[in-house]
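User: Hello, can you help with two protein structures?

Assistant: Certainly.
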Amino acid sequence: MKLDIVIAGVGGQGSVLASRVIAQAAMAAGWEVRTTETIGMAQREGSVVSHVRIGSQLYGALVPDQQADILFGLELAETARALMKLKPGGVIIANQGKVVPASVSLGLSHYAEEPIRESLYQKTKRVMLVDADALAMEAGNSKTVNVVLLGVLSALAGLPFRRDDLLQVILESVPKKAVAMNQEAFERGRKIGVTFHDRK
């Protein structure tokens, strides 16, 4: 078994935490894991790409281009930016929310939302595009977008870890006062993931 996941987002969205949660759940299930991150110049709102490789006899932490089984995107444009990592027929789990760069706010560039969306569907038919920002707010905290998407991920068939193991790692990784809202965010995401799965 081998599973390669690339997580794309911007600083402050929790992409590194998401990669560590996935890695810990896989290790708890007995798999070998390799992880690494590439982080942009800005601490917040700079590009962050995390790589998680799960299986046996893993030789490197970076997922080669066209090899990721899953592209996990916390921000729409950053998901599109990482498309070269996804293998043909791979799965995209992505937040449809945007983090608009300052250059767009100043009118110096344009955030081409529709072409970005189209690029995802041109790459693969297996796209789960989720309003994770709204689901996170419904769960009680806008910062739980990463947990919402982990819930969506947990509904995929064939993962090398159980849904309960993934949730347990999440709840052990957050402060006690945030446990309930993170569990709610996870369950809201999982419900959406099951709905996507049932459409097949």
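That covers the first. Now for the second protein you mentioned:
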Amino acid sequence: MLKQTSLTHLIKSKAKDIGFEQVGISKAVRLEKEAPRLEKWLQSGYHGKMSWMENHFDKRIDPTELLVGAKSIISCTLNYYPEEVQVSDAPKISKYAYGEDYHFVIKRKLKELD
């Protein structure tokens, strides 16, 4: 069995090889300090039309509610900023929408990390 430090290094190295810019690993614990802030943020309506953010509050603040038995959380960043520039006279769209949906791109990369 790999030691924890070796496993951490292996995960971070593989994630970077796949294309993630940053990788962090943290304990899967209830976010006691963040929970009241998130609740207030939602109650203030700062999530706009993204009503789905109100769903499953307990799972948002406690990853072990989302995945029972989880011990760690692997967080990765990925720059999906497109190189291309919109030049037409068509209505402007957000740059993140130029290419493939970033949800699919990130999901595919995370499956490679599995």
